[in-house]
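Quick one, tokens below. Sequence please?
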């Protein structure tokens, strides 16, 4: 497959202004008729009209009512088209029931669904399937009425009625020109939760959430989240809903979380359905965030879309930023906001940092790809959102909002680039630090790699000055790469824990307790004056830029920050750095980890601190993830990391045993379930405490806490507590774990999303004596396991191969053999999901022996298979480059 380069972008020879689509829906053979108003683009030289089409059977092509010949060349259809505007009609068929790739039109649970981003529309009909071709769609759906009583497409319903032979039809019209990737169709037996809302402008809208019969009672949280998102976007960015009707549909077979099709969002049921009995607090939070994310795309993505797929972060980074801001506002208190930020950063460090250092490293705006589906990555989404956050840090909330307003004023209805967004931000804030440094700022879009920042301070007691020297380097950005613009939010903490006033030599503002330093050179020094005592620098507050920071602080200084930093994020960061240093020391020395009293006392103090919120405590007491630990090391022995982390948990469990017991009892939530940040925080801490109590009991052969946990698996009134107890037993390899797993499976065998949790837990349990690996192999044969459903495949395989390094990386290479076999098997069914699984080997080249050679061998064997999809081939080829 060819490599596509960003700089090769050319506008098309023809535009398509309108599309009239008729779909006669049949699972085995759907007939599609597409009538298009084609417009000649005079800026390009005349040539053949070349349309995309994949897995389609063409029947006829007509121009202005006359049949014309056409030539098929792989996935392209060449038509000799005239050098003028014309009407093009194409008839073709496709086979939805054989579409296991879940891209284009496919069947799921007896209904029809579509997924067109990024290049799925070409699997429905022949088209200029690229995001800069924006058309107005009118869609006529015809299908069996009994089997498919609900017929939906984008926009407004203009007509519906019955047809002969038990069929019916519905005609939809979407007045907004849109790229083909936002097209959607649903035909299924569904029911809807409905709500009419009136927005600020006084307009009435109909909101609908469609799901299978029986799931209706799980849609309230999604509906509430949708309404909250609408209110928020109008209040924060003055962006209203532009449609009379906004629909969300749930489907069980889906490649990602959800899709923002104009007016007809389609959701993985895992990102939509919520009930206290079957979903956890984390699920409630995820559903709220994804509903908001897709809703926010209506402006950032749909009204203003991407010129080409290299600009993907234009909509994804910006929309993740917006859903993060929304979730923080919904969380409420400053502490709950800080917890949100902590979770974002934990996720960034475990998913995006390794990506940016590995074989799939790419910039936020990539320069090339073979398969665009492989670029829906943590870098495009999460690092992209961090970059959008940098604008807000540089411009302030008001300046950022003005930039957004100018962006929409200039580009509403257009397909544009990341440069257009940056320019709007700068032009709306002409006197800002951004405007004067725009070219340097834009390196965040073009340079891959995580910048490494080093900070060293020098206190001159006689002069009462404190000089902070910051350096940056980014080896992954290439030889001679220019420095990036890094805003470092910071403060100085005095020996007694009080915030020191900041007087920066040469700067007007004096006495503030916090400032943002702009690191824009390879090395820069900042001198603070009138500093009365040796300070502890609190740097990169709120994680003000996506960098790896070496702050050079001592344990004592970190303890000061843990106790006193005014910035909650940096208090958490101090806890993580204290733990990280101990874990790295053990891994690098090859010696067994021994947690010292100082560290354990600090953790106990956090746990017992009456000023701190439970949610914050749960985050501060969690150890850094193995993937983040690995990123600190030039050569990675996954087993050494695994052993160190397991030893640390064991020691935390035993040393703080009374404290965990107190924490468990003191954080029980009374009354009915509420998915509030406050209650969820209490449950998070109680679950962590229970996990450590059961762990400690397993070591002490004490039956009490495992017994309590087992009882909680049986009696809990919500899934957060039930699954917390089950996880505690399974993660501790407690004697009662198997019985609890059996009980849980029997109780929820009818609920696919809960069975996914059951697989997921077993697949990501920390390894002990090869038991997890053996269990995963057995689960592959379980009657409930199937590679055809992406949620199920992910819940076992991605959890094990990509997210459980201690179990996956085995000296006998068993994990790699399983991985290669399953990637190949999955690839024959669903290349997109297979390619995600293939990424388990992204960081193989930093592995220690014998893992490294065995991983390379497995990659080579997989790459030699003749039938790999483009998706998997690109991942494997890049891994071996
Ligand atoms: N914009 C959507 C991306 C998406 C997707 C991409 C590739 C294959 C399947 C997909 N389903 C959804 C989701 C989002 O970011 O909102
Ligand atoms: Zn998105």
């Amino acid at each position: 497959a060819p490599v596509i380069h960003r700089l090769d972008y050319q506008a098309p020879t023809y535009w398509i202004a309108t599309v009239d689509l008729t779909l006669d829906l049949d699972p085995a053979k759907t007939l599609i008729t597409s009538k298009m108003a084609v417009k000649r683009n005079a800026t390009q030289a005349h040539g053949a009209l070349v349309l995309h089409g994949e897995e389609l059977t063409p029947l006829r092509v007509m121009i202005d009512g006359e049949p014309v010949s056409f030539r098929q060349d792989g996935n392209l259809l060449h038509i000799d088209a005239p050098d003028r505007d014309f009407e093009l009609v194409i008839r073709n068929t496709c086979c939805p029931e054989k579409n296991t790739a879940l891209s284009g039109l496919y069947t799921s649970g007896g209904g029809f669904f579509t997924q067109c981003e990024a290049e799925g529309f070409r699997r429905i009909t022949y088209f200029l399937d690229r995001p800069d071709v924006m058309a107005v769609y009118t869609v006529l759906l015809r299908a069996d009425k009994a089997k498919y009583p609900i017929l939906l497409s984008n926009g407004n319903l203009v007509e519906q009625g019955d047809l002969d032979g038990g069929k019916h039809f519905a005609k939809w019209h979407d007045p907004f020109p849109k790229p083909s990737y936002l097209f959607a169709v649903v035909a299924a037996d569904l029911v809807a939760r409905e709500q009419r809302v009136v927005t600020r402008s006084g307009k009435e809208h109909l909101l609908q959430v469609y799901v299978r019969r029986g799931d209706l009672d799980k849609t309230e949280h999604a509906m509430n989240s949708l309404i909250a998102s609408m209110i928020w976007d109008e209040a924060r960015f003055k962006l209203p809903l532009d449609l009379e009707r906004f629909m969300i549909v749930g489907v069980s077979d889906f490649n990602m979380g959800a899709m923002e099709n104009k007016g007809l969002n389609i959701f993985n049921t895992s990102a939509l359905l919520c009930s206290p009995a079957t979903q956890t607090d984390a699920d409630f939070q995820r559903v709220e965030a994804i509903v908001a994310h897709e809703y926010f795309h209506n402006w950032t993505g749909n009204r203003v879309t991407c010129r080409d797929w290299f600009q993907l972060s234009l909509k994804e980074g910006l929309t993740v930023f917006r859903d993060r801001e929304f979730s923080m506002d919904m969380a409420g208190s400053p502490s709950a906001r800080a917890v949100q930020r902590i979770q974002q950063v934990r996720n960034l460090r475990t998913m995006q940092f390794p990506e940016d250092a590995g074989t799939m490293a790419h910039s936020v705006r990539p320069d090339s790809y073979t398969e665009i589906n492989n670029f829906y990555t943590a870098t495009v989404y999460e690092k992209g959102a961090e970059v959008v956050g940098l604008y807000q840090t540089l411009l302030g909330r008001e300046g950022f909002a003005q930039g957004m307003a100018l962006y929409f004023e200039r580009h509403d209805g257009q397909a544009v680039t990341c440069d257009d967004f940056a320019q709007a931000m700068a032009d709306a804030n002409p006197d800002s630090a951004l405007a004067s440094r725009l070219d340097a700022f834009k390196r965040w879009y073009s340079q891959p790699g995580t910048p490494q920042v080093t900070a060293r301070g020098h206190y001159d007691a006689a002069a009462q000055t404190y000089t902070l020297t910051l350096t940056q380097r980014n080896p992954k950005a290439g030889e001679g790469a220019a420095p990036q613009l890094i805003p470092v939010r910071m403060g100085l903490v005095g020996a007694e824990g009080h915030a020191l006033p900041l007087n920066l030599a040469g700067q007007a503002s004096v006495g503030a307790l916090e400032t943002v330093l702009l690191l824009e050179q390879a090395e820069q020094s900042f001198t603070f004056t009138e500093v009365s005592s040796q300070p502890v620098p609190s740097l990169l507050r709120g994680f003000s830029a996506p960098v790896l920071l070496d702050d050079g602080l001592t344990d004592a200084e970190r303890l000061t920050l843990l106790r006193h930093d005014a910035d909650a994020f940096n208090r958490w960061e101090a806890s993580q750095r204290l733990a990280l240093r101990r874990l790295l020391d053990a891994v690098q020395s090859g010696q067994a980890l021994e947690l010292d009293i100082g560290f354990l006392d600090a953790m106990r103090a956090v746990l017992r601190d009456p000023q701190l919120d439970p949610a914050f405590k749960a985050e501060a007491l969690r150890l850094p993830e193995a993937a983040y630990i690995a990123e600190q090391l030039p050569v990675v022995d996954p087993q050494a990391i695994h052993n160190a982390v397991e030893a640390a948990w064991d020691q935390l469990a035993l040393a703080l045993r009374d404290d965990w017991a107190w924490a468990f009892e003191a954080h029980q939530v009374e009354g009915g379930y509420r998915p509030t940040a406050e209650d969820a925080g209490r449950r998070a801490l109680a679950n962590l405490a229970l996990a450590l109590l059961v762990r400690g009991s397993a070591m002490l052969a004490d039956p009490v806490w495992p017994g309590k946990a087992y009882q909680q698996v049986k009696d809990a009134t919500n899934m957060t507590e039930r699954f917390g107890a089950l996880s505690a037993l399974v993660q501790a390899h407690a004697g009662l774990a198997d019985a609890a797993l059996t009980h849980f499976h029997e109780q929820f065998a009818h609920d696919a999303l809960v069975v996914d949790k059951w697989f997921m837990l077993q697949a990501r349990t920390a390894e002990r004596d090869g038991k997890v690996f053996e269990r995963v192999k057995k689960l592959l044969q379980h009657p409930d396991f199937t590679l055809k459903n992406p949620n199920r495949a992910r819940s076992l395989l991605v959890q094990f191969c990509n997210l459980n390094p201690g179990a996956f990386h085995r000296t006998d290479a068993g994990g790699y053999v399983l991985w290669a076999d399953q990637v190949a098997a999955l690839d024959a069914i669903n290349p997109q999901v297979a390619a995600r699984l293939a990424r388990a080997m992204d960081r193989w080249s930093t592995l220690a022996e014998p893992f490294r050679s065995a991983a390379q061998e497995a990659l080579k064997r997989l790459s030699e298979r003749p039938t790999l999809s483009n998706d998997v081939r690109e991942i494997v080829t890049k891994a071996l480059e």
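The longest helix spans residues 378-411. Residues 443 and 482 are 8 Å apart (CA to CA).
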